[in-house]
Amino acid sequence: MSEEKQLLNLREKIDSIDADIQRLINERATCAQEVAAVKQAGGDTDALFYRPEREAQVLRRVMERNSGPLNSEEMARLFREIMSACLALEQPVKVAFLGPEGTFTQAAALKHFGHSAVSVPMSSIDEVFREVEAGAVNYGVVPVENSTEGVINHTLDNFMDSGLKICGEVELRIHHHLMVSETTRKDKISRIYSHAQSLAQCRKWLDSHYPNVERVAVNSNAEAARRIKSEWHSAAIAGDMAAELYELEKIAEKIEDQPDNSTRFLIIGTQEVPESGADKTSIMVAMRNQPGALHDLLEPFRTAGIDLTRVETRPSNTGAWNYVFFIDFMGHVDQPHIAEVMKQVGASASDLKILGSYPQAVL
């Protein structure tokens, strides 16, 4: 068989497969509409259309049964977009994120909810919390820690006064690029804009390549990208979304000092999330100021064999030299052994606040 005939046969096979895929996606979308109709017929005005634990279970199964040649994460991303489009037929999800448009937080929101979600930029982490609390949006996305620069304290501080729950998490690999606009004179760059964390994450590269250039911290990488559109002597450090949004040229890619640089984001909302089968729990604990307080706090976790993934300390807003502990650990509060540990911690703490149990990041 000639090469031309082989290619023609393969293309006809691809066309047939595409038709099957399209038919099945529409069947799935019809099922999603029927789910919405059942929920609405029940008269429950507070019916939940987005179920974090259900989506996490679906994506895990997608990855488990994947046999290639597409890798499992790529396959799960494709299914995420299908799920996002189907959910939009039931009820579009409205998500606030730390803006402006083009930030890594928006990229995290789209990674978690898919591109059919309605993403709304906010100017501060405080505003993201307020929008969710007011019911203006369904969920919020806020950064909580970076693998290079550590925890984002402002996010933790907001939980002290908020009644919101953590409904999920997103882990995003962070790649920074040096970019310029069409008017930039590349040999005359005298100023580089970026967020303070991004400048810190690229410190060694900047010291080596642009040691004498002024580094200016701004509110976000997207703001840095926007600024250089009107400055001929400036460059910006930002990510792919900002480069596309502001039509900038990347003159140096992946300039972060740590190649595994990543940021963890939290999904905040008002709902408590049932078990998904692979969960994390976050709590906030205020301890009485006495000798051995930290030991007393952590001992029940050790005895029960619970894996602590993070322990952070923040000054309490109730008085000088009082501290609050933020703890992440593996498991869900509905599991009996976790519930027992929470009972023990609550007995020795001056205050215990369960911020939420939620599915571990899938992608």
Automatic annotation (TrEMBL):
Q: Which Pfam families match?
A: ACT, CM_2, PDT
Q: Does the keyword Isomerase feature in the UniProt annotation?
A: yes
Provide the Chorismate mutase domain boundaries: 1-94
Name the EC number(s): 4.2.1.51, 5.4.99.5
Instruction: From the UniProt annotation, give the residues forming the signal peptide.
Output: none
Query: What role does it play?
Result: Catalyzes the Claisen rearrangement of chorismate to prephenate and the decarboxylation/dehydration of prephenate to phenylpyruvate.
Protein name according to UniProt: Bifunctional chorismate mutase/prephenate dehydratase
